[in-house]
Specification:
Organism: Rhodoferax ferrireducens
Subcellular location: Cell membrane
Distance between the termini: 64 Å
Mean pLDDT: 89
Largest sheet: none
CATH topology: ABC transporter involved in vitamin B12 uptake, BtuC
Protein name: Simple sugar transport system permease protein
Number of strands: 0
Helix content: over 70%
Structural class: mainly alpha
Radius of gyration: 20 Å
Membrane topology: Multi-pass membrane protein
Order of helices and strands: HHHHHHHHHHHHH
Shape: globular
Keywords: Cell membrane, Membrane, Sugar transport, Transmembrane, Transmembrane helix, Transport
Number of domains: 1
Low-confidence stretches: none
Length: 307
């Protein structure tokens, strides 16, 4: 029984990493004042890009690079549309999500039956052999630890560096930042591309590590959960990570309950992550003032340099 709980904890960290990477990318976007609803589409395109690259080259790291590139490229297109052409951020993000779903399905047709090379097993020497704790904490893919380090790096960048202060000022008052001589549009564009790259990394992680295969729509709503997670975490990196593990744990709980023989309909268990998302958002929305205090003041609002 203890081994099953260790496996549950290990799976929670892996599932939470997907959400953490994507949500941290969206956090960077939103700190600069841009809402990107296209996370689901970017993650799907990155998932097939990474999977196809590994199938053809045998290199996982090239696969992750391809996923990052796919996410960054789609985010760059989104950035040009909403930042320079001033299209509606919400409509453009939804269009990107729909495009990503369709394009990934079309591009992945020939890879549904394709097989990846043998998956590597990772373990930190000595620590990985500790009973119970070792398998849960120290036999994870390096990107699990990267997500944790990324949280620390983002906290330092956003709250301890001048560049982070400028990024946050662009999200709070782009007019004031522009008046001080900062290139608001370029800063927002860079934030969008970085956010897309992290969503791409999350997508590649899904198809190469989390569930190493390709099927149409395999992201299965995780992009939307990551988007909700930024609000749930009130735009704080540490809370994003904790929230990601919470939602990851809820996702893995359905498989754990099935494995121990709990007699609950599988459809109900599959609903748990999305039901948890709805409940959390409903609870948060009961206190709109709390959201306004923490939310970047110019989130979702276009910026016109000439105005």
């Amino acid at each position: 029984m203890m081994d099953s709980y260790a496996l549950l904890f290990a799976a929670t960290l892996s599932a939470g990493t997907v959400l953490a990477l994507a949500a941290l990318g969206l956090l960077v976007n939103e700190k600069a004042g841009v809402v990107n609803l296209g996370a689901e589409g970017m993650m799907l395109c990155a998932a097939i890009a990474g999977y196809a690259t590994v199938v053809n080259t045998g290199s996982d790291w090239l696969g992750f690079a391809a996923g990052i590139g796919a996410g960054a490229l789609l985010a760059a297109v989104f950035g040009v549309l909403v930042i320079w052409l001033n299209t509606n951020q919400y409509a453009t993000g939804l269009a990107l999500s729909l495009f990503g779903a369709g394009f990934s399905a079309f591009g992945g047709i020939s890879y549904v039956q394709a097989k990846l090379p043998e998956r590597m097993q990772f373990s930190i020497p000595v620590l990985g052999d500790i009973p119970l704790v070792g398998p849960a904490l120290f036999r994870q893919h390096p990107l699990v630890y990267f997500a944790m380090a990324l949280v620390a790096g983002l906290i330092w960048f956003l709250y301890r560096t001048r560049s982070g202060l400028v990024l946050r000022s662009v999200g709070e008052s782009p007019e004031s930042a522009h008046a001080l001589g900062y290139p608001v549009r370029r800063i927002r564009f860079l934030a969008v591309v970085v956010g897309g790259a992290l969503c791409g990394l999350a997508g590649a992680y899904i198809s190469l590590v989390y569930t190493p295969l390709w099927v149409e729509g395999m992201v299965a709503g995780k992009g939307w959960i990551a988007l909700a997670l930024t609000t749930f975490a009130t735009w704080r990196p540490t809370r994003v990570l904790l929230g990601a593990y919470l939602f990851g744990g809820v996702t893995m709980l359905q498989f754990h309950l099935q494995s121990v023989g709990v007699d609950v309909p599988s459809q109900l268990l599959s609903m748990l992550p999305y039901l948890a998302t709805i409940v959390v958002l409903a609870l948060i929305s009961r206190n709109p003032a709390w959201i306004r205090i923490n939310m970047p003041a110019s989130l979702g609002k276009p910026f016109y340099p000439g105005s």
